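cache lookup: miss for this entity combination. No prior model stored, computing from scratch. Input as submitted by user K.M.:
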Amino acid sequence: GQQVMQIPQYQHVQEGEDFTTYCNSSTTLSNIQWYKQRPGGHPVFLIQLVKSGEVKKQKRLTFQFGEAKKNSSLHITATQTTDVGTYFCAGQVANFGNEKLTFGTGTRLTIIP
Amino acid sequence: SQTIHQWPATLVQPVGSPLSLECTVEGTSNPNLYWYRQAAGRGLQLLFYSVGIGQISSEVPQNLSASRPQDRQFILSSKKLLLSDSGFYLCAWSVRFPTWETQYFGPGTRLLVL
């Protein structure tokens, strides 16, 4: 079955440093989504990428979808304490009538003040 | 606007007791509904999903079951809880666009089986 892996599993950064998490799929994706889960909270949708090579930005967050549509990355510039949480990618394979999302393993980000 | 409710927020149950968790969605019709479980510090494990009333697909074998008695109601049940059933249970809904779907999660239920 489809697998979506994320690295690293954990990341500790000093406040103000940059952070990147990488997502890799075993199959070509029709789209990829990113979610953030704050400690004690539930996952919240951040963004969706659909096109090969697509790059989207949300303030200090930059999301990228690979050319082969099998990998993606999330980069946070100048981290802040509000960035703490676990970031999940979720990929969808175009399979008409069965387009379930497969969530990645997640990257837990902690910030050292 | 759409909202999703889950209750209870926290539950402590003895081993062997039954379970019933409820999820309801407001503000949308014919949603896809999902039950996930998240062990402490771990990722999301899809348990069940439903594309319509009475239509349930199970992703992993277990002693849990799901039902969808109404369009916007999704119930997770167990006849006898195991210690390994402890975790954070999340309900989610989505509306299917042409070829993709975004999932919106409820606040979750933290279940501790003792």
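stored under new cache key. The two ends of chain A are 41 Å apart (CA to CA).
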